[in-house]
Amino acid sequence: MQQFLTTALNGLTQGMIFAAFALALVLIWRSTRIVNFAQAPMAMITVYIALVIIDAGYSYWLGFAAALLSGLLLGAVVERVAVRPVEDKPHINAVILTLGLFIVIHALAAVIFGSRYRSFPAPFGLSGFQLGDMNIALTGFGVFSILAVLAVMLLLVLLFRFTNVGLMMRASAFNQEVARLLGVRVTRMLTQGWALAAMVGSLSGLLIAGGNLVHPAYMDSVVVFGFVAAVLGGLDSPIGAVVGGLILGISLSFVSGYIGSEVVALAALVILMVVLLVRPGGLFSHAPARRV
After folding, report:
1. Cα distance between residue 276 and residue 127, in whole Å
2. Dihedral of CA 11/17/18/22: which sign?
């Protein structure tokens, strides 16, 4: 019973981390119709900015806020400088560009911050709770991660369903020409989409780094699992991103705990294939409009 509960709670925390990264991918997809494979190194850079501030003697929360703000700025800069020249080209051009940015940002981080492993602090405890004779493997930082991801999911749902900005961002992503005719400032909406997605990506980087060691490649594996989580839930659904992250995190935790960590990647592929065979658009996808 203890092992089952520990495995499940570890999967819950891990799934929320996958969900945080998946939310960033969903946000950039909903607002620009682009999958940003450079999301992980962009988040990693902002985590290093937070680490520099914390190592200088300032509070964790100041570094946390600085990382989120720098992610917001970095996303806007990347969109304006690198992505905008190819925005009117086929979307595959922008996707290939993000793969190039992945390599470039990695190299810059290694040059600026070095490649050695560095410890990143956590604002809350990293030990589980004691309930009688049973140790609950859910840390204070794990609870913070769960609440943070749920809050972001709720805010994104409200943004895209109930605000004019969210509706204009979606209109700009689906059909730029029609959106312009309706008075939407498309370029501004695309910039805002990249900026907000980068800020959510920074949050995922901070949640992954808390209480762990960071280095320029520490988020690379999360790209794969976060992308799988986003596809499982449906790339157009913030709720789906969280559900997909939970399904993936809990499933992989049980696979690792009861079968072996060496088959975790294979299990993720099997889960993705099964879901896409049953529901190709993801669990929370909407039925496409019928063309006549």
Report:
1. 37
2. positive
**Per residue in 252-262, pLDDT tens?**
989 888 888 88
Number of H helices, E strands in the chain: 11, 4
Query: HSE of 213 in the Cβ direction (CA atoms, 13 Å)?
Result: 6
Looking up tokens 């705990």 gives 257
Count: domains in the chain: 1
Q: Which domain holds residue 145?
A: 2-219
Beta strands in 133-242 (DSSP E): 134-136, 213-214
Distance separating alpha carbons of residues 51 and 195, to the nearest angstrom: 21
According to DSSP, residue 33 is labeled: S
Q: What is the pLDDT of residues 158-212, one digit of tens each?
A: 888 888 888 888 787 777 778 887 788 888 888 888 999 999 999 999 999 988 9
Is residue 257 in some structural domain? no
Map tokens 């929370």 to a residue: 284
Q: Which helix (H) or strand (E) holds 20?
A: helix 2-32
pTM of this structure: 0.87
Q: Is residue 112 part of a domain?
A: yes
Contact 95, 35 (CB under 8 A): yes
φ, ψ for residue 61, nearest 5 deg: -70, -30
Do 40 and 159 contact (CB within 8 A), yes or no?
no
